Here is the input.
Amino acid sequence: QVQLVESGGGLVQPGGSLRLSCAASGSISTIYAMGWYRQAPGKQRELVADIPTGGTTIYADSVKGRFTISRDIAKNAVYLQMNNLKPGDTAAYYCNADLKTYYDSRRDYWGQGTQVTVSS
Here is the structure.
């Protein structure tokens, strides 16, 4: 069984910063990519940033230049540094991992979500 545990959400004023963290644990064989998605009320879940193992990082156009994704391979962790936050960034943020375990085939796993609210 795989668990993704997120932390770091909260309430911040416009222009402020937050750092989200996510660690994957369990019988993990190979992690192909880790990333962050977000879902605002009444909207579909959307990709924020994704970092494949040995591949090119992808960012949503709306966060380019403000958000930075990074990974700690040894810790099976992914981070999202969010700077210059805007009210439009308000959403539940979900950690995603594309991985294979020793007992199951490759598939996506999701964290429980962490709320980010940008408001004055």
About this structure: The first strand starts at residue 2 and ends at 7. The mean pLDDT is 97.
